[in-house]
Amino acid sequence: MLGYIVGRLAQAAVVMLAVALVAFLLFNYIGDPINNMVGQEATTTDRQELREQLGLNDPAIVQFGRFLVNAAEGNFGLSYRLKRPVAALIQERLPATLELVFLSALLALAVGLPLGVYTALRRDSWISQLILTSSLIGVSLPTFVIGIGLIYLLSVQFDLLPSFGRGGVVSLGWWSTGLLTKSGWAAIIMPAITLSLYQLTLVLRLVRTEMMEVLRTDYIKFARARGLTDRIVHFRHALKNTMMPVITIVGLQIGSLIAFSIVTETVFQWPGMGLLFIQAVGFADIPVMAAYLVMVGAMFVVLNLAVDLIYFLIDPRLRIDRARAAGRAT
């Protein structure tokens, strides 16, 4: 087990180094931030002094080395746009994004899992066909169209929910949460629904496909031959084996929710990391953009590692295969 964890950690370190290199190379050449930081009256000397202060005149390898060292310490420098430490900006925006992602993932699982099971067990019923047809909306419609549609329906037409913002928040140390206020819950409903629809459809169809595949296996036929009830066969045997690929997809899709919350946060003006990134792109705020990409990459790596470890713990076949490989090596 220890050797497996060490090996996965080494792979994660290599991946993060590659992500850091891509972030540095990509965002270091998308524009000159000096043009946005100084006015038209600034002289060439002023511009050169500012470039020297920011370290933009150093060789690329020196800048990348400095970026790696600072990133390892959690220091991503100063925002060119806001003149504040990037780490402080991310600390302010991270709670909003994580709460939105958490509720979206919970909604996708809470709705997609039972609907997937139902459509697998009652696949010929008209209700199942209606659910599958309706689920195509979550895949076919762009996120911003869904968000704008919800705003028009629930905010403009019926005035039920706020169309933008996070509502009231409560500070718990450095963490700010809107889940402890009525206005916070009202503000997060539409963004959470918008962000969860694609993931909900994915979970629904994955559970349905895997459940139907498992129900065709021999051990399910043997369970029925033993006289076990449908409830036990469906939920104790079939559903349990269906959850293995679902765990993988859901774990990786949480990272996707964080990465692709940019559109949802922009539509609803949700004060999270995605909105911060979009604003940074318009200003060529390189430290913010690089920090965002590195953080999203780190979240993907951590989630992928967590999924691998969960697999290793709940699937005895992986432990047996690894033990056999170790025995052959010795």
Give a structural overview.
Strands 1-2 form a two-stranded antiparallel sheet. The chain is mainly alpha-helical. Helices cover 77% and strands 2% of the residues. The protein contains 14 helices and two strands.
Q: What topology does this entry show?
A:
Layout: H1 2-27, H2 34-37, H3 44-54, H4 60-72, H5 86-121, H6 126-140, H7 143-157, E1 170-172, E2 175-177, H8 182-215, H9 218-225, H10 230-259, H11 261-267, H12 273-283, H13 286-314, H14 316-329
Antiparallel strand pairs: 1-2
Helix pairs in contact: 1-13, 5-6, 5-8, 5-10, 6-8, 7-8, 8-10, 10-13, 11-12, 12-13, 13-14
Features:
mainly alpha, 14 helices, MetI-like fold, two-stranded antiparallel sheet, 330 residues
Q: In what range is the share of β-strand residues?
A: under 5%
Morphology: globular
Rg (CA only): 24 Å
Strand count: 2
Summarize the structure.
With 330 residues, the protein is mostly helical. 77% of the residues lie in helices and 2% in strands. It has a domain at 94-281 and 297-308: MetI-like (MetI-like fold), CATH 1.10.3720.
